[in-house]
Amino acid sequence: MAGSTVGIFTVWWKGLKIEMKTGSTLRLPGNQNKTEPAGGTGFRYQQYQVGQFKGTAILPKGTSLAAFQPDVEGELQVMADTGQQWSFPDAYLLDAPDLADNGGNMPLTWNMNTYKELLS
Fold first, then answer.
1. For residue 99, how many other CB atoms are within 10 A of its CB?
2. How many CB atoms lie within 10 A of CB 17?
3. Percent of the chain at pLDDT above 70?
4. Is the pLDDT of residue 1 over 60?
5. CA pair distance 96, 68, nearest whole angstrom
6. HEC profile for the chain?
């Protein structure tokens, strides 16, 4: 029997469902390891790393481009087709997206500091 793995993400930003293309990436907030070389040895220390969700959304007819301006924090919800779900109450967009013609593609990047994970 073959196992399942993540195939697609479904995304909601401030309650608005966002249609994402495949190829999105998710990194949870938390510590990362860094190396500090001294003498002939590398020493490990930890540093905080913000979480990040990156992907390319499409802008369907009737959806406002202004909904993607980098203003205040809001809730970002990400659900994998395998049942994992993450809620980020303090997410924020880094930049206003560049909207492209020929499909309405717009790359989006959110950063966040806290999350809740639900498994099913």
1. 14
2. 11
3. 98
4. no
5. 6
6. CCCCCCCCEEEEECCEEECECCCCEEECCEEEEEEEEECCEEEEEEEEECEEEEEEEECCCCCCHHHHCCCCCEEEEEEECCCCEEEEEEEEECCCCCCCCCCCEEEEEEEECCCEEECC
Per the structure block, which two tokens stand in for 76? 């970002």
Inform me whether the pLDDT recorded for 55 exceeds 90: yes
Token pair, residue 53, equals 């969700």
Per-residue tokens: 22:
């495949």
Token pair for 92: 């924020």
- Which of 26-30, 45-49, 60-64 is the least confident region? 60-64
